[in-house]
Amino acid sequence: MKKFMMLLLALVMVLSLAACGGKGGLTVEEGKLHMSTNAEFPPYEMVTNDGGFEGIDVEVAGLIAQKLGLELVVDDMGFTAALEAVQNGRSDIAMAGITVNEERLANMDFTDSYATGIQVVIVPEGSSITTVDDLSNAPLIGTQEGTTGYIYCSDKPENGGYGEDHVVAYETGAVAIQALLAGQVDCVVIDNQPAQEYVKANPGLKILDTEFAVEDYAIAVKKGNSQLLEQVNKALGELIADGSVQKVVDTYITAD
Ligand code: ARG
Fold first, then answer.
1. Over the stretch 151-181, which tens digit does the pLDDT of each residue have?
2. What secondary structure does DSSP assign to 9-35, as a single string?
3. Is 191 in the pocket of ligand 1 (CB under 6 A)?
């Protein structure tokens, strides 16, 4: 009888393992964790000289994959495409300095937040735009397509935006900055950390003191994929609690 119980127990364990880990398992590709991103967003994700990927998101995702016993694969694409990839089940997670907002919450699920983003305004030195309030004087605003910077600025004036006519959406933040340097737009609204990097790399630009909006960054998973969400969230929580996330942040963002 005891032997039978042991056998039964073993069978139950094998079956339940098969149910959660086995074929057609938790992720898009067995043994891999696919992260869709837009690696044009320093210091969160960028392409290295040799065509690899680095940045805070890339490294934190690598640590999460490690905890889940998976190999991280970075799939680089446009920002909007990176969000769509996770909704369509072509990637497991989207990690791209993604701000949690209501519209996105309706279309995908998010982990707890791992960072704060602040929308700021970049202007050429000597610009007549000196505070965020000056954005109401109808300057032409550059943004990255699909980002919250674009969403806020292009919103109707009655909702606190400036209207689509006053906003240009570029493929990447870097292209928006080139447009600013070329005088094609009067300012760029973008997240604070990439803003710092762009201003450091391009003399003659500055960031206005006044902040535009404060946001939470989180990792997106396909809506309803609660098993993956739980596992990623647990791994992320552990990495935040033991200081690993902060350690990664500190290697990319130095207080100066
Ligand atoms: N935080 C902003 C948003 O979620 C911008 C993110 C852009 N990220 C990127 N990797 N290009 O809309």
1. 999 999 999 999 999 999 999 999 999 999 9
2. HHHHHHHHHHHHHSTT-SSSSTTEEEE
3. yes
